[in-house]
Amino acid sequence: MFAPPPEIPTRVFARLPDDFRRDGQATEWAKVQMHGAKLHSFLEGPSFDRAGHLYVVDIPYGRIFRISSDGAFTLVAEYDGEPNGLKIHRDGRIYIADHKRGIMALDPADGVVAPVIDRPRLQRFKGTNDLFFAANGDLYFTDQGQTGLQDPTGRVYRARAEGRLDCLLEGVPSPNGLVTNSDETILYLAVTRANAVWRVPLLADGTTTKVGVFIQLSGGLAGPDGMALDEAGNLAVCHAGLGTVWLFSPHGEPLARIRSCAGALTTNLAYGGPDRRTLYITESDSGSILAADMAVPGRAMYGES
Asked: Using one digit for the tens of pLDDT, what is the confidence trace for 89-147?
C-alpha cells in the first residue's frame, strides 16, 4: 500500500449565477441519473478554447456556458439534448458527447448545435459520455448509457479524422472519461462502476489488445469520471462522490490528492490559465468551478495547439 499522498487545496473560481439556476424543475435525465432529484444544474465537460475561455455543459437542461477569466458566465447555446462531455476541435468547433443525441458540434459564433455522429449503421448510441481529440485529429469517445456491473456492454469508439468509425472496445461496465498518454500509445479509460482506470494499448494497426487495470480505486459513491494529463505524463483523475481529484504518476503511483472545498461531485477537469498550471474542476452538486495550483503544466489539448 502507498502512504497517503500530500494534499493540494482548491478554491472556488466561479459559481453558476442564481439567474441561471433552475431550482424546482424536474428532467428525464435527473429522474434516472439522480434518482429524481430536482437539480439547479449539473455542470460537466470543462474545456478551454485558444482565447482562454472555459466552456462547460449543463447536462439536464441542454445548455453550454462560456466562462471568462474573471468567472463571468455567458449562455452560448440551449438545445434539446443532454450534453455531457465537451472538447474543442482545432477548427474552433465545439464537439459535444450528448447522452441523448450522440456526438454533436456547436458553432460558437451562432450557437447552432448540429449532429456529427448520431446513428452509426442506423443504430442509436446507448448514451455518449466523454470525448478526447488525439494530435492527428482522431476523436475518441465513450458510449456509457446505463451500463454498469449489471450490464457490462459499454463501448469505446474512435472516429478517424478522415471519417471512419471504429469500435475499439465492447463489454465495458460504464466507460466514462478518457485521455491518451504522452506519446498516444495508451488510452486511459475511466470505468466508473468498476471504480477503476483501465489501460488500453493502441497498436500501430489501429487495434488494441491486452487491456488491463491501470489504477484500482476504492471508496466514494460513484467512481472515476473525467481525466487529464500533464506535461510530465501524470494522470489527474476526478473521483466523483469522493470530492477528490487524484494525481497519479505514469506508473500509477499516487502523487497528490486535490480535495474539493465545495461538494463531493468532482466530475471533470481541465488545465488552463496562461501557463496551464491551474487545474479547473467542475463540482456539480454546488454548480461551481474549483481551481487548484499545480506544479506541472497540463498538456496542451488538440484544440489549443
From this structure: 998 899 999 999 999 999 998 999 999 999 888 789 999 999 999 999 999 999 999 99
**What count of other Cβ atoms lies within 10 Å of the Cβ of residue 43?**
26
Burial class (CB in 10 A: 0-12, 13-18, 19+), 108: middle
**DSSP run (H or E) holding 33:** helix 28-33
- By DSSP bridging, strand 254-259 and strand 7-8 are parallel
CA separation for the pair 50, 64 (Å, rounded): 17
Burial pattern 53-77, b for ≥16 Cβ within 10 A else e, equals: bbbbbbbbbbbbbbbeeeeebeebb
- The answer to whether 114 and 120 have CB atoms below 8 angstroms apart is no
Where does 7-304 sit in CATH, by number? 2.120.10.30
- What is the rounded distance in angstroms from the CA atom of residue 303 to the CA atom of residue 80? 25
185-239 tens-digit pLDDT:
999 999 999 999 999 999 988 889 999 999 999 999 999 999 999 999 999 999 9
Which whole number is the average pLDDT over 275-288?
A: 97
Nearest to 100 by CA among 29, 39, 8: 29
CB 184 within 8 A of CB 135: yes
Distance, in Å, from the CA atom of 117 to the CA atom of 189, rounded to the nearest integer, reads 21
Please give the pLDDT value at position 35: 84
Q: Spell out the domain ranges in the chain.
A: 7-304
Annotate 183-206 with b (16+ C-beta within 10 A) or e (fewer).
Answer: eeebbbbbbbbbbbbbbbebeeee
Question: Could you give phi then psi for residue 87, rounded to 5 degrees?
Answer: -140, 155
The answer to whether the CB of 221 falls within 8 A of the CB of 257 is no
